[in-house]
């Protein structure tokens, strides 16, 4: 029997996991203080979804394809909207970004969360693809990957439900210089 986390708690989303990877303190600030960074022009442009079927064909994502699929598991208290789910019975997922990025580890975490969410709600996921403009990173989805996502989801939930900010390895780092949440941050 799966553990039930959802009762009395908010959902852990792909956005939470992305924030956590960038800096765990952002998850806490958003949850505890209820503040959100207003979208910049770059963020709006970067969030556009250039779905290019020739790219998905080249990668070999099986059909049928479904775009912007809202998935939710009430039992585990997790939800997200997956850019592309391909296949039937054995699935592949893709997260699509308009531009290349130098640092994309937070998008990779988000993608792995989508793979986990899809595996829980629909069925086994074998590959996950991060599309960054013309560049594609493809990952095999193993039990170890899914276990790591479970660990992150658990940690994110703890942070969201805590009165105290988490420790972060990024306090005082270069990330803080550009961080919009710095003005609310208890770690700097
Ligand atoms: S200012 Fe630094 S420590 Fe604080 S939330 Fe931003 S990145 Fe994290």
Description:
The chain has 188 residues and is an alpha/beta fold. The chain has one domain: Alpha-Beta Complex (Lambda Exonuclease, Chain A). It is 38% helix and 22% strand. It has seven helices and six strands; from the N terminus they run βααααβββαββαα. Strands 1, 2, 3, 4, 5 and 6 form a six-stranded mixed beta sheet that branches. Strand 4, helix 5 and strand 5 form a beta-alpha-beta unit. Helix 1 packs across helix 2 and helix 1 runs antiparallel to helix 5. The protein is globular. The chain starts with 11 loop residues before the first strand and ends in a 10-residue tail after the last helix. The N terminus is likely disordered. The structure holds iron/sulfur cluster.
Helix and strand topology:
Elements (H helix, E strand, L loop, with lengths): L11 E2 H9 L1 H10 L7 H6 L6 H7 L5 E9 L4 E9 L4 E7 L7 H17 L3 E8 L2 E6 L2 H18 L13 H5 L10
Parallel strand pairs: 1-3, 4-5
Antiparallel strand pairs: 2-3, 3-4, 5-6
Features:
alpha/beta, Lambda Exonuclease, Chain A, six-stranded mixed β-sheet, globular, disordered N terminus
Low-confidence residue ranges: 1-8
Overall, the morphology is: globular
Q: Could you say which structural class the secondary elements and strand pairing correspond to?
A: alpha/beta
* Oligomeric state as shown: single chain
Quote the average pLDDT: 91
Largest sheet: 6 strands, mixed
The beta-strand count equals: 6
Q: What's the helical proportion of residues?
A: 25-40%
CATH class: Alpha Beta
Name the bound molecules: iron/sulfur cluster
Note the gap between the termini.
42 Å
The CATH topology corresponds to: Lambda Exonuclease, Chain A
* CATH architecture field: Alpha-Beta Complex
Radius of gyration: 17 Å
Tally the helices: what do you get?
Answer: 7
| SSE succession | EHHHHEEEHEEHH
The domain tally reads: 1
Beta-strand percentage range: 15-25%
């Amino acid at each position: 029997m799966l553990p039930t986390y959802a009762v009395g708690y908010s959902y852990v989303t792909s956005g939470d996991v992305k924030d956590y990877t960038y800096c765990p303190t952002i998850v806490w600030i958003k949850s505890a203080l209820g503040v959100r960074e207003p979208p910049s022009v770059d963020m709006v442009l970067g969030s556009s979804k250039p779905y290019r079927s020739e790219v998905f064909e080249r990668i070999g994502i099986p059909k049928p394809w479904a775009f912007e699929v809202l998935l939710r598991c009430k039992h585990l208290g997790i939800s997200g909207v997956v850019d592309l789910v391909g296949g039937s019975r054995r699935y592949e997922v893709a997260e699509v970004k308009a531009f290349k990025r130098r640092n994309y580890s937070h998008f990779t975490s988000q993608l792995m969360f989508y793979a986990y969410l899809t595996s829980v709600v629909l069925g086994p996921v074998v590959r996950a693809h991060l599309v960054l403009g013309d560049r594609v990173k493809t990952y095999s989805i193993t039990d170890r990957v899914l276990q790591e996502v479970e660990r992150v989801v658990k940690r994110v939930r703890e942070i969201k439900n805590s009165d105290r900010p988490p420790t972060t390895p990024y306090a005082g780092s270069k990330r803080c210089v550009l961080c919009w949440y710095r003005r609310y941050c208890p770690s700097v």
